[in-house]
Amino acid sequence: MKRNSLKCKIGPSILNSDLSQLYAESQRLLDNGADYLHLDVMDGHFVPNLTFGHPVVKCLRGKIPHAFFETHMMVQNPEQWIEPMADASVNLYTFHIEPVLKDVLPLCRKVREAGMKVGLALKPGTDTEAVKQFIDHADMILIMTVEPGFGGQKFMNDMIPKVQWLRHNYPLLDIEVDGGVGLNTITACAEAGANMIVAGTAIIGARDQKSVIDSLREIVERSIQKCSCKM
């Protein structure tokens, strides 16, 4: 029997945390069981909001040297920030394909050459067909389950078929969901095949962060186990 090597990974988004206490908030999430930190970088162009850039990520890395960092680059020109984020010791560089459809493959190569893993992100209006030709060049595909740019939005259940299609066609691919994911929506995500879970408000705002992270993990691991038994 072929074993499914997928692993559940819970990566809280710090977007809705107290950014004036970024290190303390991030460390608390890791202490409570987070597998990685999901760092939302917005440029005010690709999305209408601004967050922080590579100087902040580099400072945070100085405080937290061993954690896995994913930067979710909601930016118009992802190439511009590859080297700065690599210099900040980012592990996974996830960029949106929409503004760079003609340059996705060269960008994947540049991200890898800079020493980072490659994540490709899709806005809700982007079909999986648009990313199909690039999947073999990526380590992870991110399906946005809200419109990117702001935290606290309502989960878009009609994004679930994208996750299902990816899992059906790429059984061992890391598939991440981000946006409105919490205890009320995690089952749909997990059963569709998502194994990397970004949750912001649901974890950040919880009285007991560890309990929420543990519950999310349990549901995802149960779905992975079911999938493994079928293989």
From TrEMBL:
<feature type="binding site">
    <location>
        <position position="178"/>
    </location>
    <ligand>
        <name>a divalent metal cation</name>
    </ligand>
</feature>
<feature type="binding site">
    <location>
        <position position="40"/>
    </location>
    <ligand>
        <name>a divalent metal cation</name>
    </ligand>
</feature>
<feature type="binding site">
    <location>
        <begin position="200"/>
        <end position="201"/>
    </location>
    <ligand>
        <name>substrate</name>
    </ligand>
</feature>
<feature type="binding site">
    <location>
        <position position="13"/>
    </location>
    <ligand>
        <name>substrate</name>
    </ligand>
</feature>
<feature type="binding site">
    <location>
        <position position="72"/>
    </location>
    <ligand>
        <name>a divalent metal cation</name>
    </ligand>
</feature>
<protein>
    <recommendedName>
        <fullName>Ribulose-phosphate 3-epimerase</fullName>
        <ecNumber>5.1.3.1</ecNumber>
    </recommendedName>
</protein>
<keyword id="KW-0119">Carbohydrate metabolism</keyword>
<feature type="binding site">
    <location>
        <begin position="149"/>
        <end position="152"/>
    </location>
    <ligand>
        <name>substrate</name>
    </ligand>
</feature>
<comment type="pathway">
    <text>Carbohydrate degradation; pentose phosphate pathway; D-xylulose 5-phosphate from D-ribulose 5-phosphate (non-oxidative stage): step 1/1.</text>
</comment>
<feature type="active site" description="Proton donor">
    <location>
        <position position="178"/>
    </location>
</feature>
<dbReference type="GO" id="GO:0004750">
    <property type="term" value="F:D-ribulose-phosphate 3-epimerase activity"/>
</dbReference>
<dbReference type="GO" id="GO:0005975">
    <property type="term" value="P:carbohydrate metabolic process"/>
</dbReference>
<keyword id="KW-0862">Zinc</keyword>
<feature type="active site" description="Proton acceptor">
    <location>
        <position position="40"/>
    </location>
</feature>
<comment type="similarity">
    <text>Belongs to the ribulose-phosphate 3-epimerase family.</text>
</comment>
<dbReference type="InterPro" id="IPR013785">
    <property type="entry name" value="Aldolase_TIM"/>
</dbReference>
<dbReference type="InterPro" id="IPR011060">
    <property type="entry name" value="RibuloseP-bd_barrel"/>
</dbReference>
<dbReference type="GO" id="GO:0046872">
    <property type="term" value="F:metal ion binding"/>
</dbReference>
<feature type="binding site">
    <location>
        <position position="38"/>
    </location>
    <ligand>
        <name>a divalent metal cation</name>
    </ligand>
</feature>
<keyword id="KW-0413">Isomerase</keyword>
<dbReference type="InterPro" id="IPR000056">
    <property type="entry name" value="Ribul_P_3_epim-like"/>
</dbReference>
<feature type="binding site">
    <location>
        <position position="72"/>
    </location>
    <ligand>
        <name>substrate</name>
    </ligand>
</feature>
<keyword id="KW-0464">Manganese</keyword>
<keyword id="KW-0479">Metal-binding</keyword>
<keyword id="KW-0170">Cobalt</keyword>
<feature type="binding site">
    <location>
        <position position="180"/>
    </location>
    <ligand>
        <name>substrate</name>
    </ligand>
</feature>
<dbReference type="Pfam" id="PF00834">
    <property type="entry name" value="Ribul_P_3_epim"/>
</dbReference>
<dbReference type="GO" id="GO:0006098">
    <property type="term" value="P:pentose-phosphate shunt"/>
</dbReference>
<dbReference type="InterPro" id="IPR026019">
    <property type="entry name" value="Ribul_P_3_epim"/>
</dbReference>
